Please model this.
Amino acid sequence: MSLHGAMAPRGRTLRWVSAMGAWALVGLLAVSCVPAGPPVEPPPPPPIPELPPPSWTGTPERERSPRALPGTEPGAPSAAPEPAREPSAVDGRSGRRADGPPVGAVPTGGAPADQAGAPPLTRDVASPDDGETSVRALWIVRTALNHPDSARMAVRRAHAAGFNTLLVQVRGRGDAWYRSGREPRGPTISSQFPGYDPLAVVLDEARGLGLSVHAWLNTLLVGSAHRRHGDPLHTVNRRPEFLAVPRELAPRLFAMDPRSPAFVDALMAHAAANTDQVEGLYTSPVLAPVQDHLADVVADLLLRYDVDGIHLDYIRLPNADFDYGRAPLEAFRARLRGSRSPTDLRDAERAWQAGDVFAYTDAFPGDWADFHRQGVTTVVERIRGEIHRIAPGIPLTAAVFANAQDAYTHRFQPWEEWLALGLVDVVVPMNYTNLPHVFQAGVDRALRAGGPHRVWMGVGVYNTTFEGAVEKSRMVRESGLSGLVLFSYDWAVGPEGQAAARGDYLGLFSAQVFGAGTSAVRSAPRVPVAPASGRLDPEPQ
Model:
């Protein structure tokens, strides 16, 4: 995941109240991968429960009862999807995770109390058979959704191993692994089944097994460093001026027409040459059209699918030396010209007029960083607003850098503030280090920031031994945190995961971390949500 709850399936209706901060903001994380141990010849994969006859498309939308906006007349038909809006750069209205190998089983071809006396604002989400309340989640990368069989098998394998929550990647690089009215279809989805709807199939399968499904969206990351999306409506092709520019390319690209092929080619070449720092092409979080588009994407998804939560990934920039494109630079200059005296800006303005594109950012570096933290926060706030408007009963969660200081300073991801303001209901720190004391420090800081019920700890299994993953997961359980998320399902069930565990990775992991008798999971635990006032219920009952 970007270096990348569990709610009970629909039917348990305790109302969640979204918290909206009163910010009027215009404007915004790298893992160290340690190779696994030496390869071991993997044993044959564990037997998988026999699948019923396939349903390639999932339940038709008309039978899924598309979500109606709160307050609309019951039974009224939902409006037809709007055509994708063309964002305007003027008014702004519109609109490292390693993704891992494909799943081995893929067939060929194929989210102080409320008013005094009010009950806690929580939602019932699961009580596993061992009597504990915990979120046992898996990040499922989009490659597992390419074929209907592998999508359905992912749900069945997770359930068989005792997991109760699935964070399913449905937006990869500005594309959709579902029927979107805003973005093009994922390019690797099997063309053998033109009507195949990956998210619908996962939801159908999960509902029957009692698992929660959160739609996982890569937020600001929209393009690959190696391959350009072929659809002309993809963001990279349609609005390249919204792409974030690294500082070292800023002088050259400032005057270049973003629609020139050389513009995107330069960004892709830079990303490809810096894969240890940059995962691909990002959009700028400080531009209003980008914020609008992301809010539109979430709104469109919520109106079409009855998901249990929205999970944001790559809700950050790759590092502090990013987003030096012409539009952000000009927007920052305009912001300062509207808030500071001409005397304060005199030297910077002279340098700007002389052609120094860094004149304002170098003169006011603290303001420039705040500008981006506010931009990223505005994206979160806008998405939170769409959830509140359309589906106020579901949570917003975010995958964040485990080192909160690094996230704040270098990725413009102030997730501790998001928790304090109630902009997100749960954070999932991607605590992928293999150093136990560093891992524990990440757990401790997250606990201080969010308490045990608003943090699920992310554990990377791809970059450590099976025993190492078990040890870290036990540390999470002993800390009292209410949730644990493994990255990733795809790696665990693939040949490397099977070799590392010398058998069924998920099943063996579950037995050692969760204990015996965890395969028949009925539901998932409660998660506190910020009420409208922004105050939080500290201890769900």
Remarks:
- The two ends are 32 Å apart (CA to CA).
- Residues 285 and 441 are 30 Å apart (CA to CA).
